[in-house]
Amino acid sequence: MPAKTTELLNEGAAGLDRRPPAEIASLLAAGQISAAATVPHAIHAICAGAETMARTIAAGGCLHYAAAGSSGLMAAADAQELGGTFSIPAAQLRIHMAGGLPSGVEMPGGTEDDTNGLEAALSELTEKDSVIAVSASGSTAYTVTAAQIARSKGATVIGIANNAGSELLNLADHAVLLETPPEVLSGSTRMGAGTAQKIALNMLSTLMAVHLGHVHDGMMVNVHADNMKLRARACGIVARIARVPEAAAQQALDAADGDVKTAVLMAASGLAREAARERLTQTQGHLRPALERTA
Q1: Known catalytic residue: 7?
Q2: Is 81 a catalytic residue?
Q3: How does pLDDT run across 30-43, given as a tens digit for each residue?
Q4: Which one from 7, 51, 81, 179 is the annotated catalytic residue?
Q5: Which residues share a beta bridge with 158?
């Protein structure tokens, strides 16, 4: 059986420990850039996966992120950002990380082989759900088992791995292959492989949000503004799209209970709050066609 690419030695790293720090740093940076360059080759699978994720959320299903180790941290980071960035309800998100999410600085490696409890953790899976399973090797027992359980329950599997022909990608409905080169530090997939995974996850969730109508002209119009920075951002978004002063934008946001899309329609067209909400219902939450109807 051929060695996994993620375990091979990077030929350019020979004598790494004897080189000047600046040269080592340059090689590390080049490794990250090379890893990132693999992501465009997975565009079609990423697009298909994002569309599936959007259908899952729209249908009231749940997104389940399953992974171990560094891949688990990448997956968890994506899942935990979806509420604040796009107001995806917490009830529609689950994180399954081998050993559980770490609460301290230690992350035991042996848990990635422990599949006990996965069946119970995924017992609520239905055909409406999607599982985003991430593993650099594509053979991590915890992640592969999660994908197998998902398939048995009719859920859609989006598999992200860095080795071609791996078991996870063979199980996936949408196989996202990120064929990153050997790591500068052999086997340390928190580096290049992790960088490529993070990019792919960012793309999947952002494309999903576009499908759901949560993005308008590069702005997050479904943001959950629960701090000063985000409240200021929400006000700026309403002012920019509705083309009104910030004072008017803030007034509309207050009247809309902080809902950016509703506030935009109110500020841009003079619609009352309930009329604006009804307009958005008619356009399945997409702001652009709702604005066009008021033009």
Answers
A1: no
A2: yes
A3: 999 999 999 999 99
A4: 81
A5: 132, 174
